[in-house]
Design brief:
Number of domains: 1
Radius of gyration: 17 Å
Helix content: 55-70%
Largest sheet: none
Order of helices and strands: HHHHHHHHH
Structural class: mainly alpha
Shape: globular
Length: 181
């Protein structure tokens, strides 16, 4: 898909279903049980991540992320645990994008993540629902293997680290203290 085609697709994805159907002049058939958002461009990355899981360094350092970003976004303990584990492998995503010939691919995928994240934010009740929505964005809502779920978490962690999803706290923000000593 060309850059212009990807840009147009991302703009189309901003439309709600009724507006999209109106634009197309026909109903959009969606199977409520199984769908994917259309990240076919991520399939090679997901495949590589699933293959590299066994050889990835399990004790790699967690990349430096704004120290309060997790607290600012009110991530639950379960999401926090998944994110921290996945961040240890986010370098694999960098390696993938460094090795492909299309230099703007990462930026296009990041933009798609941000657009979708902003849409999710409008309806999600909490950070866990945002995380699950991003996971479905990557793998769809069909049941997938643990390895595919892990690969999706690594991709989400990568875009979390790069500040394409979830918010960076404003300068000077710090979590409230409980006053306990």
């Amino acid at each position: 898909m060309t850059n212009r085609g990807q840009w147009l697709w991302q703009e189309f994805m901003r439309l709600d279903r009724a507006a999209a159907e109106d634009l197309l002049g026909c109903p959009i058939p969606i199977d409520e049980r199984t769908y994917g958002i259309g990240l076919a461009d991520l399939e090679p990355l997901l495949r590589q991540l699933r293959q590299r899981k066994e050889t990835a360094e399990p004790l790699a350092e967690v990349p430096v992320v704004n120290q309060h970003k997790i607290e600012y976004n009110r991530l639950t303990d379960d999401v926090r645990e998944t994110l921290v584990k996945a961040l240890r492998h986010s370098y694999l995503v960098d390696e993938y994008y460094d090795g492909i010939t299309r230099v703007d691919e990462h930026d296009l995928v990041a933009r798609g993540f941000r657009i979708y994240f902003d849409q999710l934010r409008e309806t999600a009740s909490d950070a866990e629902e945002l995380w699950l929505g991003l996971e479905q964005y990557v793998v769809g809502n069909a049941r997938v293997t643990h390895r595919a779920t892990w690969a999706a978490a690594v991709v989400i962690a990568h875009f979390f680290e790069r500040c394409d999803v979830f918010d960076v706290p404003p300068s000077g923000w710090a979590p409230a203290t409980t006053g306990e000593v």
